Amino acid sequence: MVAWDLGRLWVLWVPILCIWDSFGTQTGRLAWAQDIVKEFSDEYAWNNNEIPQFNNLVIGKVTGRVYIGAVNKLYQLSPDLELTVSAITGPKEDSPDCSVLPDCPASVQKKLTNNVNKALVIDYAESRLIECGSLFQGVCTVRSLRNISIVEKNVREPVVANNATASTVAFIAPGPDNPPITQVLYVGATFTGSGPYRSEVPAVSSRSLNSDTLFEIAQTAVTTGTRIAVNSLAREQYPINYIYGFSSEGFSYFLTTQMKQSDPSPFHSKLVRVCHSDKDYYSYTEIPIECISDNPMKDYNLAQAAYVGKPGSDLAANLGITAQDDVLFAVFSEGDSAEGDVTSKPSKNSALCVYSLKSIRRKFMHNIQRCFTGTGSRGLGYISPSLPCINTKLTQIREDFCGLDVNTPLGGELPVFAKPVLTFDSLLTGVTATSTGVYTVAFLGTGDGYMKKVVVESASAGVEYANIPISLGHGINSDILFDLKQNHVYIMSDKKLSKVQVQDCSVYKSCGDCLGSKDPYCGWCSLENKCSLRGDCKDAAMDPLYWISYKSGRCTTIASVHPVEIQRTTARTLTLVIDNLPSLDGKFLCVFEANGKTLTTNANRTATGASCTTPRNDLLPLIPAGQHHFTSVLSVKLAEGTDFVSTNFTFFDCNTFSSCTSCVSSYFPCDWCVDGHRCTHDVGENCRNDVLITGIKRVGTSLRSGPNFCPRVNSTSGGSSEILVPSGIKKAIQVKVDNIVTFLLQNRFVCQFNIEGRVTSVNAQLLGDLIYCDKMEFAYTSRAPNISATFAVIWDGSKPLDNPDQIHVLIYRCKEMADNCGKCLSLDEKFECGWCQSSEKCEVKEKCGDQAKSWLNRDQTCPNPRILSFEPTLGPWEGGTNITIRGINLGKEFRDIYGGITVAGIQCDPYEFLYVRTEEIVCKVDGPGTREPRSGPVIVKVADFRGESKQNYEFIHPEIKAIRPRRGPMSGGTRIKILGDYMNAGSHIEAFIGDAPCTIVETRTDKAICITGPSDALTKAEVRMVFDKGTRVLSGRRFEYVEDPKIDYADSGNSGVRKIPKGIPSGGINITVVGANFNYIQDPKMYVIFQDQRHEGPCMVVDNRKMHCKSPKIEAPIAWRSIDNPEPLKLDFGFIMDSVSRVQNLSKVLNSHVLIYPDPEFNEFDEDDGIKYYKSDYLTLNGKNLNRASRETDMKVRIGSKFCNVTSLSLNQLTCKPPEEQPPAWINNQESYDELPEVIVSIGDNLKYNIGKLSYSLGGEGQLPKTVLIGVALGAALLLLVVIGILILYRRKSTESSRVLKNMQEQMDVLELRVAAECKEAFTELQTEITELGIELQHGGIPFLDYRTYCVKILFPSVQDHSVLQWDRPELQRREKGLRMFGQLIMNKTFLVLFIRTLESNRYFSMRDRVNVASLIMVTLQSRMEYCTDILKTLLGDLIDRCMDGKSHPKLLLRRTESVAEKMLSSWFTFLLYKFLHECAGEPLYMLYCAIKHQVDKGPVDAISHEARYSLSEEKLIRQQIEYRQMNVFVSMSPQTIYMSGLDPQGDNMDIPVRVLDCDSISQVKDKSLDTVYRAFPYSQRPKKEDLDLEWRTGTSGRLILYDEDSTTKTEGDWKRINNLNHYRVPDGALLTLVPKQSSMYNISTMSDKSDRHLYHKYETLNLSKMGANHSPPMSRATSPLNHEYDNGLKVWHLVRHEWDNDKDGERHNKMVSEIYLTRLLATKGTLQKFVDDLFETIFSTAHRGSALPLAIKYLFDFLDDQALQHGITDDEVVHTWKSNSLPLRFWVNLIKNPDFVFDIGKSNIVDSCLSVTAQTFMDACSTSEHILGKDSPSSKLLYAKDIPVYKDWVDRYYSDIKNMPVISDQDMNAMLAEESRLHANEFNLNSALHELYQYAVKYNEQLIQTLEDDEFSCKQRLAYKLEQVHNVMQSSE
C-alpha cells in the first residue's frame, strides 16, 4: 500500500502527458499538478489487471476517516490517505450452491473465491461499519469504525448480490416502525441466479439494524413486509440494475435501469420509491426518469450515477425551490448501438441532468392520483400481474401519501424529465455536487479516468471549466465524496484513490486568467491584486468590483496610457484610462517598478481613470549596457494599500543607438542626424541645419525615412558579405556604398581593418558608388584555420558608414584547414586550396612556389591512399559483417571507392550514407562460403592508387561453451557471463534467453556479458547468440528463470515486536532482511530516498531466505530539531535486486520506513592528557544516541592492534571487555610498542571516533624521594603552628558582641546571596527561548470539539448528557403533535416575546431558569437564525429601553446575565463564531493553553495543593526552594493497554522518551506519559491514568509497580509524603511501562548487585503485602492537606507542607521571605507573553490570520451604535462598555477561562488558575476605567500593569475599525444566517428542547394566559386560544 505525494506523481506522469496539450483549464494551465494533493493505491493491484481492486468508498462525517471496500480487502485511511488499518476478507472457499448456513452439502465442490465488496455503509447511530461481500450468498459483517480489523458481529443473512458484476445499492435511512427514530438498512440488489438460494433475496428491502434482528427484513407479515421481489417467471429475463439510493423528506428512493417491458425491450431509467413509515411496502412506486436532449437522435436512456445535494441560490431560483431543498444530480449515457436495441451497455455519449426533489415528489403524486382515479393499469408485471387501476374515490392525495393495499405495487407511466445541463463525448461514471456562494458546482468522473469540474448555471445550462486526469485508462467509481470541510473531493478508480482540491485559486496570477478559468470558487480580489476565494478577500462585500466573479468578467484594467512610452531623459504627465475602477476612498499613487527600483508619484483621479507624472530623471534606473530601453511595471494603488491594477510602461533612450540603421529601425520615435552622427528624440533641439533621416516610428511625412536612406556599406563587388583573403597575400578591397549625399563627397575616406585586435587603416577612394581600398597584406599569427577581421569605412575622421550586412574580411590558411591531400581537395572551392606536392601542404596556388606542376587542384586525384585501422578484425564465416575502415586519401567522392574494396580477397560493399570523404568507409562483407578459417588484408583502390592494411581480417568460428550463473529471477536483470571462443566476432552481436533478448553490455574474445530480460513464466530456456549472419546455441545447458525474490521484512534487531529497519546518516548499520529466493540475486543493494535522491548500501546474501545489508550513507546534511531527543526521519526504502520491481519501494508494500537517527557520538576521555588508566575488568565509553539505531554488533572498539569485545550498549554508554594485556599501538597498519594504544570506535564503515589513549599501568606508580617527603611534612607542620597561633591571638582580642554581630552579618550575607540567586534565575527564565515549545505545539494538531459538543458545553455547562442530544425518547413521539403546535407558537414573534417577558416578570423565575430558558430557545431557533436574530434584536432593544428609563447607569447594561436576552446573546455568538474559532482564533487560544501547560510542567507542581514553581497566579505559586532534577524516562504501552484503549499511538510498541522531574509523583508521571505518548489523540480518547499502573522495568525481566502510596511511603510525625520517582531511585533513562490495573506482573529478576537485589525484593514484598496482587494504591488527592486526614489521622503532602512543627532543640529555620519568590510570576509571564499577545491580537483584529471579521460582530456593534444614537447617548465610553459587555466579556472571557469548551483537552487546577489571570487581564483591557495600582493591588493586575494600556489601545482601535467598516446589509446578513441554519439544522433534538420549554409554559400558565389575553396583537392572532389547544393536545397524549 502506498500514499503517493504530488512530487512522485509528477515525475511518473509528466513524460507521458507531454504529448497532450489540452489538459487543465481553458487558460492552459496544467491544473492537475496542483489539484491532486495525495493518492493511495495498493501496490499489487496495479499488477493484476483482471481484478477490479476498489469497489466502494465511504467517508466518516465525524472523524473524516476514509474507508475503502475492495476485492478481498478493506482499507481504513486517515483523511490524508495514510493507511492506518487494513483487513483481509478473502479469498475463501465457497460455492453458489452452498446456502448461507455454515454447513454445505458434501456433494458441493467449493473453490477459492474472491470476495467482492458489494456494500459499505456507516451506521452512525451505533458507530459501526457495515460491509457486505459477494461470498456466502452475500452476507454482511459489522466492524468497528475505529479499527476495521475488529469484527463486532458476523450475520448469516443473505443481503446483497453474490457475484462480482451484479449491482447492489445500500444506505441507512428512517424506516418502520417508528421513523425517524427507527433507522433501517435499505438494500437494492440485482437478481444473480448464482445458485438455488437467490430467490430468498428480495430486489428491494428494508432491513433491521436492531442487534437481535440484525439484517433481517425489518417488518414481515404473511404476504407483505418491507420487501419487494421480482417474480420467478421474470427474474431471469428481467434484470434490474441499481445505480444509487437516497432518502429525502419521508421517502427512500432507488435509481435503476431496466427494460421498458417485461419482454425483451430497450432499457430506460426509473426511480423507485417507498415511504419511510410503510411496513408493507404498499407505497412501492416506480416512475420513469428521463434526460431529454433537443437532438432527437440522442436518447440518454441509461442512468450511470447520481447524487442528492443542495443547490446554490442561482440554481435554486431557476428550479423554483430554496437553497435548502434537495436536488438530484444524475449522469446518463446513450445505449451502445453496437450491442443492439436491448442493451444496458453505455456508449461514450453522456449528459448531466438535474431534478429538484420537489418536482420528483410532485410527479410521483400525479402518477399515484392517476391510478387511484382508475386511469391506466398499475404495471410492474415483473413483480405481480399488471391489473387495471382501481378507482378509490380518494379526492385528496398529497405528496406525502404512503399508499394503500390497493393499486400496489404501482408503475407510473408519467416520467419526470429534464434537459441536459451539458453533454459530453466521454462516458460519465460518477457525480457529486456542492454549492459555493450562489453557484452550484458538479464534479464528474469519466470512464477513461478523468474528473470534470462543471458549473451548473441553470437546470439546462452549464460550463465545464476543468478536466483533470486522475487515473488514465481506469474508469472513475460512482462514489465521489467530499471531505469534512468540502475543500477536497475523494475520487476513486478501480485501483487508486485520489484526494483532489476543489479549487486552487492561487495559481492564477492575473485577473484575466482568474476569470478566464471560469472557476466559480475563484474571483479577482481587486484591492489585493490576487485570485482568491471570496472569504479570503478583504472587504469583498463592500463593492461588487472588490471581488469579481467569473460571470461578471469585468477586470479592473488599465486600458491605455498616453503617451505609451517616453524618452528617459524627459518627464511627462501620463493619462491612464482605467476600466471597471471600483469606488475607492483615499489618495491614489502611481508606482513605477523596474530593475530593482520602486518609484512613486502622486496621481489624480479623472473621469476615465487617473493621471500622474513620471519620476524625476535622476531617480530613474540606468538603461543596461547593450540595451536601449527598460520596461517598468506601472501600478496604481491607494496610499494605504496594495497595487490594484498595473500595466507595462517603457522608458527609452535614443542616445544609446550608435548607427543610423539601428536608430531609425528601432521601435521608438528616434531620428538620425547625418552630419552630427547621432540619434535623437528631439530633432528641433539636436539636429538643426542637418540632413535628417527619420525613424520608422516617427509620425508624419518625411523625405528620408527608414534605414534605406542611411549612408552605408551595401555589399562587396561580388554581392557577398564575406571577403576571402589568404593569409600572407596582398589584396585590394572594394565595396559598394549607398546614400552618399553631396557633402559626404568632399570628405576623406579611410578603410579600417581590425585583425586580431590590431587596427590597420588604408586610404580609400570613392568612385561612383564604389569605395576602393588601397592594397595591403592580410596576415595573422594564431594557428586557427581562419579568422574574421572587422571592416569599416570611415569618413570625416571618425564617423563610420553603417555596415548593416556585417561585411567583413575572412583571412584563412589552407594548411591549417587540411593536413592531407584528400581533405585539402575536399575543401570548399571558394578557398581555392590545393595540394602542394613539393611541400606536402595544403596551399593556395600562389604559395606553392615555382613548382606549379606539383600543385594538385580539386579536380585531380590524391596519390597514396592509406588504411590506418579497421574494425572488427574478426567475423563469423557466415559473413554479414559491417567493417569500418579509417584512413587518409580514401577518395573524395563515394564513386571513387565504390567497387574497389576487398576484405581477405572478398568484395566488401560500402554504404554511401556512412561514407566520410577521404577518412572513413563502412562496408559489408559476405562469408567465404566455406567453414575453413580464412584471413587476409583489407584493400581499398582509388583510381590507379591502392591502400592495404597492415593487419589481416580473419573469418572464424565463434563457439559458446558455458554460462554463469545458470539461474536468475523472472523479472530479469541477471548479469550473465557467456563463455566461449571468439565472443567478440562480428559487428552486430545479440544474445537471447529463449525468445527474450539478453542485452549485451561487454564482449571480449573469451566471454560476453549480457543482462537478462523478463520472463512471463518459470522456465528453462536455451542460450543463443547471433554474430551477424551466424547463430550459435549453447548445447546441453539452459538458463533457468526462478521465482522473483520476496521480502517479508527488514529489521535492525532492536525494534521490539515490530520489525523496523533503522540507520544513521553515516550508514553502515547492520540490517537483516528476511524473505525468499535470495540465492540467485547478484550484487543486491539496499537504498533509501532522501530529498528525492537515492542513497545505496551493499547487501550480502546469507542463504535463500536471509541477507545482511548495510544501511546506506546519506551524503546530504540533516537538520535535527533536537540532537538529544530526536524525532527519527522516516525514509522510503527498497532493494535493488536485478530488475525485480516488487522489492523496490518497499515502504509502500510493507507500510514501513527506515528510521534514520543521528549518528552516535562518543566523548573523548576526560583526562587532561587524553590518557585513561585502565583499572577494572571493563572499559566504559560515554556518548549520546548510541543505541537509537545501533546494536552491539554495529560497534567495533579497537585498542591498538586488538579489539575490545562489546558487551553492552545503552543510550549513553558502551561497555566492552579489553584484552587481558595492554596491546601494542597500531600505527600505519603496523604494531608499535613505543606508544600507548589508541581507543578507536568504528560504527559501520564510515564513522570513526578517536577516544584517546589507554594505559594499563596505574597513574603515579613512581615514589617521591624521602628527602622531598620529609621537607613537605616539616613545611605542613610549621604552617599548622602558625595558623593555630593566629587563631589564639584572634580569640583573645575578640569580644562577645563582635562575634554576635559577625554571626548576624554572615546570616544576612547568606540570605542576600540566596535572594540574588533567585532573582538571577528568574531573569534567566524570562529570556529563555521558546523555540522548542513551538515545535512541540505543532506536533499533534488542534483537537477541536465538534459543533454539537461545543454548543452544549457552553449553553448547558453543568449538564453532561442534555436531553437535546437524546434522540431515542419514545415518550416524545406520543406528544409530537402537541410539540409541533407549541413549536409553531414559538415561531410566532408576538408569542415568543410575550412568553419571555412573562417569565422574567415572575419573581420565582430564578437566574438558573433564565439561563436554561435562553439556551432552550436558542436551540429551538437554531434552524431559523434569521428569526432568532430578529427576536434577539427586539429583546435587546427592550432591555436598553428599560435600562435608559430606569435608575441604573447605562454602563451596567449587559454587565450581568440578569435577563434571557443577555444569555441569548451569548448563545448567538456561540453559534455564529464557531467557524471563526475553527479557522482563526482557535489556534492562538490553543497555543496559549499548551504554552501554559508546558511551562507549568517544566517545574515542580504540588500534587496535593496544586501549587507550582511556574505560575501566573500568586495563590498557586510555590513559595519555597524545591530541589529537583529533570529526567528523561522511556515509556511504552503494554499490549493489553493498547488493546483496551483501542488506540495504537505510535504504530509500534517503542520506548518513547518522556520528560519528567525526579520530584514528580507517580500520578504526575502517568499524566506526562499519557500526554507524550498520546499527544496526537484528543484527550477524551486517551486511556485514563486511573485505569493504569506504572511499571518500572529494572532489567531484562524485572518489574516493579510504582504507586503514589504504598508501604514504603515515608511518614514524619503526622505527615505522610506521597512517593515520587526519587523515592524509588528511578534513574535517568529508566524504562517504564503503562499497564492496565489488576494485570501487573511482579517477577523481579535476579540482580547482579547484592544490595540492589535486596532493595528490589524489599519493594516487591512491600507492594504485595500492602496492596495485594490485584490492587493499586489510591491516587493523589486533590483536596487541601490542611483539613483532610487519612487512614490513621495522617496528613498527606507532596512538595510543600503548609503547617510547620514547632522548632525542636532550639533549631531555627533559616527561611527566605516568601514574597521573594514572586519574581517567578514575572518569569512565567515573560515566557508566555508572546502567546497572550497573539491571542489578544487575533481577537482584537478585524482581519487576522487570513480570516475576515465575522459578520455577526459587525452587525451587533452597528446595532448598539444605532441604539445609542436613538437614545441620545454621546458618551463614547458607554457604547464602548456595551460592546465590551456584549462580546469580549460575555463570550471571549468564557472561552479563555474554559478552553475545554472548544477543544478536547484536559485542564488541571494550576492551568485553570493561570487562565483565570489571563482572562482577568483581558477584562481589564476592555474596561474604560483607570485602575489605580498600589502595593496592595492584586499581583495579577501588577503583573500586566505595563501591558494593559497597550491592550486597551488595541481594543479602541478594534472598535473603531469595525465602526468604520461599511454597514452590512440585511440581505447579506440574512444570507449568512440562512447558511448557518442550513449547516447545523439537525444538530439537536428540537422536540426535547420544545418539551422542556413547554414545562415553563405549564408552570407559569395562568400568568402567561393573562398576558396573552391583555396584549392587543396577541388577541388578534388568538394566541391564548392556540396555547389552550396545545395544552389539550398534550394532556390527551399523556
Question: Would you write up a description of this structure?
Answer:
With 1934 residues, the protein is α+β, with helices and mostly antiparallel strands. It is built from 37 helices and 107 strands. Strand 53 (749-755) and strand 54 (758-767) form a beta hairpin. The radius of gyration is 47 Å and the shape is globular. Residues 1-32, 45-50, 1259-1264, 1311-1320, 1322-1333, 1639-1686 and 1700-1713 have low confidence and may be disordered. InterPro entries: Ig-like_fold (IPR013783), Ig_E-set (IPR014756), IPT_dom (IPR002909), Plexin (IPR031148), Plexin_cytoplasmic_RasGAP_dom (IPR013548), Plexin_RBD (IPR046800), Plexin_repeat (IPR002165), PSI (IPR016201). It holds the Pfam family Sema. One of its GO terms (molecular function) is semaphorin receptor activity.
